[in-house]
Amino acid sequence: xxxxxxxxxxxxxxxxxxxxxxxxxxxxxxxxxxxxxxxxxxxxxxxxxxxxxxxxxxxxxxxxxxxxxxxxxxxxxxxxxxxxxxxxxxxxxxxxxxxxxxxxxxxxxxxxxxxxxxxxxxxxxxxxxxxxxxxxxxxxxxxxxxxxxxxxxxxxxxxxxxxxxxxxxxxxxxxxxxxxxxxxxxxxxxxxxxxxxxxxxxxxxxxxxxxxxxxxxxxxxxxxxxxxxxxxx
Length: 233
Hints:
61% of the residues lie in helices and 2% in strands. By secondary structure, the chain is an all-alpha fold.
């Protein structure tokens, strides 16, 4: 007998939390387009992640509020339309699958924690930089890392309601993602359409963070059975 809830599950049924993040990110980007150059510079100054704000406190001593908010707010800013579209594609691709395996609150915590972790991992390599970091790719790398770990060692069932990648596919993707960003690091690849330098450090840092907690949060907040660990005889 076919489970009707599974049968009616649309292929492109995007979780509400993914739609909300995407809508907020897109609205913020379009608001950027109507700002004057001076207003845009102020937006980047306060909402982008700038390492010098943390490593040179004497310079940024009157901006304590932005110390707290910028490690998350930078993920909602994008350099241009190409940058935005690329990250929204990955949000729909990986975020949708990951968001179905945790509650919306756990997903938001993962998204925010991935944003923070990837930013400070990037800062390790750019301690006193005044160059602003923008974009959701660090947070999305954490989402991808968590999904890879869930796929390799799932704690909840794999069915259309809780999709994951086949384990071999997940391993190959994980190797590809790390290898691609190491390639960026070694070749200093940049894009000509406005993204500029690729923050490969943030990508790797976010992925490692997501992968490290992926199994821990798999199924968190959902009222479904959790697989017990195998018992050796």
